[in-house]
Amino acid sequence: MKKLRELSVDETFEAFVLLKTADVRVARNGKKFIAFTFQDNSGTIDGKYWGASDEDIATFTTGNVVLLNGKRELYQNMPQVKIMHLRLAKEGEPTDPSLYMEKAPIDIDEMKQEFNDYLLDITQAKWHRIVRHILSKYQKEFFEYPAAKRNHHAFAGGLAFHTLTMLRLAKSVSQEYTELNPSLLYAGVMLHDLGKVHELSGPVATEYTLAGNLLGHIVMVDEEITKACIELNISELDEEVLVLKHVVLAHHGLLEYGSPVRPKIMEAEILHHLDNLDASMQMMLGSLKQVNPGEYTERIFGLDNRNFYLPNI
Amino acid sequence: MKKLRELSVDETFEAFVLLKTADVRVARNGKKFIAFTFQDNSGTIDGKYWGASDEDIATFTTGNVVLLNGKRELYQNMPQVKIMHLRLAKEGEPTDPSLYMEKAPIDIDEMKQEFNDYLLDITQAKWHRIVRHILSKYQKEFFEYPAAKRNHHAFAGGLAFHTLTMLRLAKSVSQEYTELNPSLLYAGVMLHDLGKVHELSGPVATEYTLAGNLLGHIVMVDEEITKACIELNISELDEEVLVLKHVVLAHHGLLEYGSPVRPKIMEAEILHHLDNLDASMQMMLGSLKQVNPGEYTERIFGLDNRNFYLPNI
Amino acid sequence: MKKLRELSVDETFEAFVLLKTADVRVARNGKKFIAFTFQDNSGTIDGKYWGASDEDIATFTTGNVVLLNGKRELYQNMPQVKIMHLRLAKEGEPTDPSLYMEKAPIDIDEMKQEFNDYLLDITQAKWHRIVRHILSKYQKEFFEYPAAKRNHHAFAGGLAFHTLTMLRLAKSVSQEYTELNPSLLYAGVMLHDLGKVHELSGPVATEYTLAGNLLGHIVMVDEEITKACIELNISELDEEVLVLKHVVLAHHGLLEYGSPVRPKIMEAEILHHLDNLDASMQMMLGSLKQVNPGEYTERIFGLDNRNFYLPNI
Amino acid sequence: MKKLRELSVDETFEAFVLLKTADVRVARNGKKFIAFTFQDNSGTIDGKYWGASDEDIATFTTGNVVLLNGKRELYQNMPQVKIMHLRLAKEGEPTDPSLYMEKAPIDIDEMKQEFNDYLLDITQAKWHRIVRHILSKYQKEFFEYPAAKRNHHAFAGGLAFHTLTMLRLAKSVSQEYTELNPSLLYAGVMLHDLGKVHELSGPVATEYTLAGNLLGHIVMVDEEITKACIELNISELDEEVLVLKHVVLAHHGLLEYGSPVRPKIMEAEILHHLDNLDASMQMMLGSLKQVNPGEYTERIFGLDNRNFYLPNI
Amino acid sequence: MKKLRELSVDETFEAFVLLKTADVRVARNGKKFIAFTFQDNSGTIDGKYWGASDEDIATFTTGNVVLLNGKRELYQNMPQVKIMHLRLAKEGEPTDPSLYMEKAPIDIDEMKQEFNDYLLDITQAKWHRIVRHILSKYQKEFFEYPAAKRNHHAFAGGLAFHTLTMLRLAKSVSQEYTELNPSLLYAGVMLHDLGKVHELSGPVATEYTLAGNLLGHIVMVDEEITKACIELNISELDEEVLVLKHVVLAHHGLLEYGSPVRPKIMEAEILHHLDNLDASMQMMLGSLKQVNPGEYTERIFGLDNRNFYLPNI
Amino acid sequence: MKKLRELSVDETFEAFVLLKTADVRVARNGKKFIAFTFQDNSGTIDGKYWGASDEDIATFTTGNVVLLNGKRELYQNMPQVKIMHLRLAKEGEPTDPSLYMEKAPIDIDEMKQEFNDYLLDITQAKWHRIVRHILSKYQKEFFEYPAAKRNHHAFAGGLAFHTLTMLRLAKSVSQEYTELNPSLLYAGVMLHDLGKVHELSGPVATEYTLAGNLLGHIVMVDEEITKACIELNISELDEEVLVLKHVVLAHHGLLEYGSPVRPKIMEAEILHHLDNLDASMQMMLGSLKQVNPGEYTERIFGLDNRNFYLPNI
């Protein structure tokens, strides 16, 4: 079976796909139809299911895996599927939604191992205990969640993958500038986005939670450090705690980007730079892999709406 | 004895005053002098003490009350004192520094009483318990601290006075717009600036603390609510808690002003407006009371550097 | 008969409604249709009238009341009416357009009475005469006009209602800050938006006038004060006149918002704060009353495109 | 006698000069001195008069002409005069202050003649009458006032000279773009800065008036048009009047620069461009004439703090 | 034959027109259609060609001239053509695309003559040689290219016409301000936008080139001056060369608009003003000629999204 | 001999120092003095030389090495030297100015070696040839110049050191993101600031050159690539050349920071991030090494005027 991204225009195909979204609407003729987004791990494509019965509507809902017979077409320059037949996947067929979702390029177990190594490199005792405590409390979510609803690292495992990439960059940078404290940098990197396990609803059909909207992930990880201190009997007034909280609170760099304080410590400033660098890189890669050499990407919202060019070299 | 603000140019005087600052410097001739700022509860004035001995330097330090004989002069259009004689105040003389500092225009006990009344008007049980718990923990500091290092409400008791004024405004506004929840508004007002008891060093020679610089008062009051929930056995996930935290976190209104989230709840938006209004009012009053009708104030930093005119009417 | 906002999806109904807009267009098949917006005092709903004859087009024009038989549907997630039958309302039926338009929550006569009381509280003679003179000249329009084409107070009587709310807030604030001059504040509030009787075309199908586009309401009320001075034989150079004009000219607070000067007098600054507060409050209420507890509003353009949450408490 | 700008360092000289400012201060030794700014029509220079007696202070006041014996020196890289002798100019000597002030490069009578020619070119009757009416009312001030307190055209006659230069540019531009209405452009140019006769205190020791601070010159010329309409019995509602007012109100181009409306008519946009061009040109010339080829000017506040280079060509 | 802009609604017509764009799409019924934009020298109009065969698609491509029989209609308030018949223009019929494109209002030969006159007025030898060298290298493109892909001067010959208009304005301004160096101003004007012959793809179906996107026209004309110096054996270090390059590099005035340096020389500042003035004028004229007196234009993107009013005078 | 930074207050000392600046001024008493800034490789200190004779002024000029006997004092909280004796260094004493200037922390020969290694890693032929050609042309200046007049890397060899640090970071980042083209990244890094050899006057008493002010270093390196192409017979139109120029032109990231284009290629975006990171790091280190743990630095202009805290950990 071909993947969705591999189909050419006017090609007919059969494929197991995940129903990523399934919105019921009314057509001009008064009849209902379902506007689907189908997904496999190569990408997504839209398609309309005309004249949907009430039973169809009850059957084909978000999160189900279906067997789709269709034809890839272009509608107003956008690819879409003309649906020819559709049924739910049966037992014995590949019905696990996670098979159809984009994943981090590294295996979870490998990532866990590498995290452990970095954790051991946090040699300052209080930071080590706090980070270990919080990570173990949210281990499951941390390795499953995306890093965002859309834009960069918006895939299952994206949160851990983004954090891991930053740990590796932090290591290179610490080696280049020996004045930096690697323990503080690693501890800050590990925690900086962890509040997203509260801010986002999970790896599938990711939405912002109420807490995410009202508090934001930056404040929520600060609260986690506060609670960890109580649970570990570490004084919140210790300078080590203030400094770790600061590095995490300041990581968006500018107040306009949601940090309540700007970096006032060298490691906070650097963590912000690395976060920016990895996010930019990931957004560029996400768009550039959809074009051929000599072409421009679409405009990327998170990069000030710039489009990028893939050189022909 | 005349107050400092009552003196005319070239008038000689004798007065007990507080040494607000006392900086030792070297003159062009190589001798040391002390640059004083003298303070009584009518205002402040600068004066230089030429040819200071090491003993003088050890004696006349910040926070002491002295008996000053001097003459008020103008130097480059700014008032200053020509110091004729200076000695420490003795026992039996008015040596309590707080006698010379600006104070809130209402007595502390009256303020406490009025606070209690508003606390009783918080009828939602969780908010009532959380606010009562935190206020009683920091009651002493709350009624002593200024609301800022400079600018608005920068006087002893200023924090409580600012909060009380906002409670009264909140009451009027709740009566005008009945859709507002007065319990939420009062709870938010009471807590909104309470983090300043951690952010500022205290009522005398007020400075920002390390925690103030690294975390800021907005995050610190959020942490206090987190701790109160633990101590009171209230779930942090309750919508009442999220909403209360949000109202407090969002009170600066804009991310650029240090709130990590913008108001997304009606009462958060209104609290921000009332905070702005009282701060503007207090800054204008502070400057306007130093000029006569028909004159302009100096430019006020916190009001976009505007100067204000006192009409001749 | 049910109101438009009370209908459920797929419900058929009959109702008298106002034709708020009636745009004639050509369908893909070359035939004409009319795109209606129907309105009653609970809200509005769109509906298309297919295959309209020239007679239909001449009959069903903006501002007429019709009897509508239809079915409420959803089209691309937006409510619309499937029109089953339509005829003009006849004599004896409720044909007065004002029955179908949103209104200020207070009766006009009550508002007039309350305005008179505030007018008596303007004790400074020149301000009193000027305000009374202008208000009586435009009394009819002042109590009929909306305060805006859309956004806040965009309903018949909205201008007077917005002004009245601000007078009440001004009264509370004057009582809290006794340094404010209530006469000046009331006079400024009463006149601040009065130029809108020139800027807007009226309560129905409100548009900006040419004068509104080329001069704006702020300048036009300044001109009204100039003319009032001539007619009342008050010197334009009197400080009372300059100060009143300033309070009115500066009420948008920032040059970017169209005030030619920024507030330089205490009452001008406060009037700006109260104007902001009431506009924000009205925009939030307008959106929040369309959602249920636990839901978010749509994004509100006039509030920096934020959406708001209605707590579940 | 040499002019002030012609003196070299360490040169002694005798010259009649105007006392532009004369501020009394107290020196470190407790004695009074006067800080003078001397002016002739080539420029200004500062000098301190040490040990001033009360009689000196009463004699040497702003606006008097004096005979100064002094020596030009450098103090902290700024030129200053060491005063050797000073006395008031006597009868028979050149005591008229206007002899010492910078002037427009064209004679007033020539300017008046050229204005009349342009006035005749305003062929639209209402604009012609309004402009003639206002200009004749303020003719004296219009030809005496500067166009600003500092920055561009800050010299006696500067207002008329700036207006005249813009009329000439307007003529060239109208000839290049025949779609422009020269009558409207000339009428707008003639009135655009006329409000400065109210905004500024006059040609000597120019300050902002209270009306200037509270209303600004843009609003005040709009009021003048309103009054002219009443006096000339022209309806304020005529489109010709609205359009003329608009061109004047919009001439600062951006709300941030104090126009209450942005240009919405071609001639308003062009008037704004020409105003900008002449102001920039005048500021550059003012600074460049103080440097030699191959040198940079000081930074010019009104041009975003840029400095300019005079090429060596 | 009528021009496209002269047709009234529902009028049938026959006309030779250029296929400006021809996009193939799939309709809801699965059949292909072509979305055309037709153009003649009065303007453009869209039209859909339903049920296009593969032969139609191969025949009716961008850049061809066709004979169109159609009916002008309104679809959603926008004019469109209902296509009744379509065929390619034959030999002997007016098949030259340039007949259907908008042109500069002056004949190319006249423009060339006027350019030569201005070139002779560049009396500084190095500037004269450099400008002559570059202009003769790109003479053909310079007189054919538009000045932009859209917005101002987006027509064949627009680049030369824009440059010529600026030369005329530069002459007037140099006469008004005799301190300006007309040679430098003319040389700067002639070169300022010449890099557009590299930045844009040409007069038909204008797009940005890769070099245009990656380097921009400002840098490319600087490179041309560098190369001209090498070819003419003029030292790049000569102040005349630096100054000429600066005037060209700085002509966008602000860094935000793409100039790598802000104007630091009088002529650079003035060139920027004139460029702005002509661009604004051209954008306003382009929009205003599409409306009648008493109407507003559409919003103009390049003028901060303002709309303009054409007075009824 | 002690270094300047090692002296305590009131300590007398003798030291060879470089005269970094020597400005002649006139004191209030009319006598001349010289305001010196003395420098050794630990830092700088100011001192005034009162009553300077014309011979002193001719002797003690910028760039000379002197033997200074003095006493370190505090004047208005800033350290200064009271000069007790001063003479020029004689032959046989350490008179080489470079001994007293701050230097890059790596030896020049080591840097050259490392550069060569990176040059070999540019495997794309055209980029390799262009970079080698330009570097060899400016080799001497490249390894001597600072990277800025002040702020980051403002020391001899700073330009090469900054470039080398970025090469190392570029290597780490290329290894982490294998989609990046290391040849392009290295070529871009090597050239990105090379224009500073034209923009700055040299390692001693560094000033901006006229070319630096009028063109800027970004444009000048683009010109160097243009010339290199001519000299190496590489077509300027090759995509490899366009792409290399783009990476260099875009390295300031934002138009507001002086890049004429924003990054549109992945390697351009990353080069900008690395440049930012190293500049921030260098500015922080420069300030932090002047404070003790537990202290704040002064505000750093290039980092938005933030001050930084050195943790006590």
UniProtKB/TrEMBL annotation, chains A, B, C, D, E, F:
Which EC numbers characterise this protein's activity in its record? 3.1.-.-
PANTHER family in the record: 3'-5' EXORIBONUCLEASE YHAM
Q: What is this protein called?
A: 3'-5' exoribonuclease YhaM
Name the lineage. Bacteria, Bacillati, Bacillota, Bacilli, Lactobacillales
First-level EC class: hydrolase
Supply the source organism for this entry. Vagococcus luciliae
> Has the keyword Transport been applied to this entry?
no
Q: Which gene encodes it?
A: yhaM
InterPro entries, from UniProt?
A: HD/PDEase_dom (IPR003607), HD_domain (IPR006674), NA-bd_OB_tRNA (IPR004365), YhaM_exoribonuc/phosphodiest (IPR050798)
Q: Which UniProt keywords apply?
A: Hydrolase
Name the SUPFAM superfamilies on file.
Answer: HD-domain/PDEase-like (SSF109604)
